[in-house]
Amino acid sequence: MKLYFDPRTVNCRKVVAGFQLMGIDYETMDIDYFAQGQQAPEFVAINPNAALPALVDGDLKLWESNAILQYGADKSGAAGAYPTDLKVRADINRWLLWEASAWFPSTYVYLVENVVKPILGAEADQAILDGEAERFHKLAGILDAQLAGRDWISTPDPSIADISVAAPMHLHSHQKLPLENYGNLRAWMARVEELPCWKATDVAPLLGLS
Ligand SMILES: N[C@@H](CCC(=O)N[C@@H](CS)C(=O)NCC(=O)O)C(=O)O
User: Fold this and answer.
1) How crowded is residue 135: how many other Cβ atoms within 10 Å of its Cβ?
2) Which atom of ligand 1 is found nearest the CA of 49?
3) Ligand 1 atom closest to Cα of 14?
4) What is the CA(16)–ligand 1 centre distance, in A?
5) Residues 182 and 121 in one domain
6) Left (φ > 0), alpha (ψ -120 to 50) or beta: where does 77 sit?
7) Which residue, among 159, 153, 169, 133, has the nearest Cα to 10 in the 3D structure?
8) Do 141 and 163 belong to one domain?
9) Which of 46, 71, 99, 144 could pair with 182 in a Cys bridge, judged by C-beta atoms 3.0 to 4.6 Å apart?
10) What is the CA(123)–ligand 1 centre distance, in A?
């Protein structure tokens, strides 16, 4: 399997950390996100969305980071991180879809305003952050409630749901995510941050953040 990626980007970090959690072997193909490598015709032929990451396995060209995690888990038989029990799997799938459709878009606003813009020498737009706050707090409350009395989102041990949902808040202190009211969420994120696969894929130094 060949993973086309830039380790500095959130959805690539998700796949790399998830593959490491599951002990999956793969080759890497470097694409420079900040040089718009994802828009090169050779890459767009693999992912017409011109977005990272993408996985190539023989004749399969796969995009969407959560689909890549699911495929890697099934191909490698990593049933601990993506159990085959029907109801457990449905629950994990639900959180993967929630991450892609709701959580990522909301946390991404904070990433762009408070991390990407400053890196590029621009200022965060407080009006945009204020406009996102209501949706963010609704979603953070949902996740915090799910984590009440649980170490991990869906399973007794970390699963790809934990990696997927943690990824878009991986720079949460730099993103300035307003997490003060969500103790369960903060405790869970601290557990994620202790995972070897998370420590090994720290993005902050690659972006010049401390
Ligand atoms: N839903 C997609 C989102 C992929 C995505 O947005 N990737 C970002 C990097 S994290 C990207 O390459 N965006 C294209 C761009 O900014 O030009 C996934 O989970 O793979």
Assistant:
1) 14
2) 14
3) 19
4) 14
5) yes
6) left
7) 169
8) yes
9) 144
10) 22
Residue 111, domain extent: 86-201
> Residue 176 is encoded by which pair of tokens?
């300035």
Let me know whether 91 and 64 are in one domain: no
Q: Could you tell which of 39, 65, 106, 165 is best to mutate to test the pocket of ligand 1, judged by most ligand atoms within 8 Å of the CB?
A: 65
CA of 31 to the centre of ligand 1 (A): 12
pTM of structure: 0.96
Alpha-carbon dihedral sign for residues 137, 141, 19, 85: negative
Tell me: the pLDDT tens digits for 127-171? 999 999 999 999 999 999 999 999 999 999 999 999 999 999 999
8 A C-beta contact, residue 192 and residue 162 = yes
Task: Give the chain's domain count.
Answer: 2
Q: Are residues 113 and 190 in the same domain?
A: yes
Convert the pLDDT of each residue in 54-90 to its tens digit: 999 999 999 999 999 999 999 999 889 999 999 999 9
The DSSP secondary structure of 20-39, one letter per residue, reads: HHHT---EEEE--GGGTGGG
Residue 208 lies in a domain: no
